[in-house]
Amino acid sequence: MKNSIFFVCCLLFLACEDDVVVKPNAKLRLDYPAPKYVASKTNCSYNFEFNDRATLSNTRNCGVSLNYPNMRAAVYITYQKVGATNLESLLYDAQKLAYNHSRKATSIPEKLFENKANNTYGVFYSINGNAASQSHFYLTDSLQHFVTGSLYFDIKPNFDSIYPAVVYLRNDIMHLMETLEWN
Q1: What are the b/e assignments for 69-89, b being 16+ CB within 10 Å?
Q2: For a surface tag, which of 46, 138, 149, 169 has the fewest beta carbons within 10 Å of its beta carbon?
Q3: Prediction pTM value
Q4: Rounded to whole angstroms, how far apart are CA atoms 133 and 97?
């Protein structure tokens, strides 16, 4: 009797085996529409083109905020006049602002920017990793104007999750840099 109960239990264990089903890896797909750029209307010493999905609002001292409500992101732009002795400190502050994120960033590649036609020169910083900001840039004509910008998300930074939005917004920032003109 004991042997028959043991035999039935073994059959039940062997008969209840699940088939292994291999499932494909799933990846989050976030598609954003192709950007349509419009000209900014500021009363300041610079203008640029920006994505029409963003709302532009002027801040104090000729600063600008580009808000992307659907992505919970914003690009904050500040403007300062270049004086006879402050260009070096403005450059230092802009670089320091980008590298303040190095504790959380995995890398901060720099891309030099030059547009001789618009007399703009600067650097674009891609901040990779779970840092508070994902991009910084500055532009100047080295004589009168200096603009800095930063990309922030209104969420706790998780670079893997926000990466598609980061790439989309970095392209918008590069377009902004390419079209910025001094008045």
Answers
A1: eebebbbbbbbbebeeeeeee
A2: 46
A3: 0.81
A4: 10
Cα 43 to chain centroid distance, Å, stands at 26
Tokens 């904050």 belong to which residue? 76
Integer Cα distance of 108 and 99 in angstroms: 8
CA atoms within 13 A on the CB side of 62: 15
DSSP percent split of the chain into helix, strand, coil, nearest 5: 30, 35, 40
Other C-beta atoms lying within 10 Å of the C-beta of residue 68 = 21
pLDDT in tens, 10-49: 656 665 555 666 666 655 566 788 999 999 987 889 999 9
In tens, the pLDDT along 140-170 reads 998 999 999 999 999 888 888 889 999 999 9
Residues ≥6 apart with Cβ < 8 Å to 144: 45, 81, 82, 182
Spatial distance between the Cα atoms of 76 and 152, rounded to a whole number of angstroms? 8
Q: In the structure encoding, which two tokens stand for residue 71, read together?
A: 């992505």
Show the tokens assigned to 150: 């930063």
